[in-house]
Amino acid sequence: MARSPRCEVHSRLASLISEERMYDHVGIVFKDLRRSGGFYTELLAEIGIRLMEDHTQADGTGWLVFSTGEPESPFFVVAAGSPSFWGAAHAAARSPVHLAFRAPSRAAVDRFHATGLRLGAANNGDPGVRRGRYYCAFLIDFDGNNVEAGCYAAE
User: Fold this and answer.
1) Binning pLDDT at 50, 70 and 90, where does residue 6 land?
2) Helix 33-45, helix 106-118: angle, nearest 10
3) Residue 9 — pLDDT band, cuts 50, 70, 90?
4) What are the residue ranges spanned by the domains of the chain?
5) What's the CATH code, domain 23-82+95-152?
6) Average pLDDT over the chain, rounded to whole?
7) Which of 14, 67, 107, 135 is the most exposed place for a label (fewest CB within 10 A)?
């Protein structure tokens, strides 16, 4: 059975929207790579993001790369040390950032939040609906960053 032209257009639009993304990658420098790396390894696993590369150096600097593992997928870098683009006045964890990760489901948001609390993050917003269908939860990590997981779900 052939699809209607309207279904074909909607299918093509959905495909284009799902392929577009605002960022390719984001990197944050933390005070303690071992502590933050362990935290994000467990926390992001709850929403389907895993540690893909470990470039930790003997002196504790370096970087970790997190992603879903899909080819050319966006990735998140957890680092420690001084990136090449930093000047003398720059330092890790001086100005907190807000990181929002897309979760696959409400259950994943709940697991993300519970895991973060278990690992020592501070609660910055229990899981719940914030706007429309957007269900999310917030944590404050060890460097003061506001870390969020959310999904658009009808549940």
Assistant:
1) very low
2) 150
3) very low
4) 23-82+95-152
5) 3.10.180.10
6) 88
7) 14
